[in-house]
UniProtKB/TrEMBL annotation:
Signal peptide: none annotated. The keyword Metal-binding does not apply. One of its GO terms (cellular component) is membrane. GO terms for molecular function: hydrolase activity. This is Alpha/beta hydrolase. InterPro entries: AB_hydrolase_1, AB_hydrolase_fold, AB_hydrolase_sf. Residues 52-293 form the AB hydrolase-1 domain.
Amino acid sequence: MTEQHHPEVAESAEVFGTVSADDRAVAPPRSHFYESQRLRLHYLEWGSKSSPPLLLVHGGKDNAHSWDWTARLLSRYYRVIVPDLRGHGDSDWVRGGDYQLDDFVLDLSTLIDSLELAPLTIVAHSFGGVVSLRYATAYPRNIRQLVVIEGIGKPYQQRDPLAELREWVERTRHASDRIARRYPSVEDAAKRLQESNAAISMDQARHMAAYAVRSNGDSSFSFKFDPYLQILAFPHRYAVEEREAHWANIDKPVLLIHGTDSWLSCDTSWPKHFPKARMTVVPKAGHWVQHDNFQGFMQALDGFLECPR
């Protein structure tokens, strides 16, 4: 297992203006790799190995370093593990581009078991929330607390199977023909990130872009995620009745976080399908709650996590 350190994280830690002198003393993350289904997958580790474990799981087309600000603060109290999901960040792409939801669950399970993290707290965003919910329904005993940020989408509506198959085939063909967009510089990639989310500052965008892109070897840069992730919609959905029945398996505390300005639908009845769940809506935040209103997001976490202070 290889290990690297990232001092750049400490240098950019004051982007949100919430870093204290104690936070500045936090050591930068350590970089590791593990294997799952013959893939070499990457994760970051923050804090002391003797602290309670907490997993941060990023969303689709994102990467582990988008959690840097959150991880930095939580690492004062937790051993924070932050994976790059397969096809993202510094983790391997899947040969052939076949990304199945349950393979992501397998990767999460492999990481948790190999590091002996259970029972643990999981905080997950967007698609990472989908994966983490799926994991928690299968392994509720491994969960201490679960936070899902904008990780519940519209339930699957049954359609003509052949129409779905044709759509999936066309999307797969399109992904195979797609050429990753090239940016002249990391700064240009940062501008693209800010264009996609006007709520983040350029300092935030620069920090995220520094880890989100790779060099193409010709002075240009492209985002690291696999273009085949664009087709991760079929056949991974499951019906609302099945979904809600699975949620009932999670008998540990669950917090569902949503942003007031998000494009994603929010159903206030969701918590009733969990034995121990509640919902918090963070003001002045869109889908990227943890970036759009960092203080509001951290307050929501602080009011929920059983933090060993």
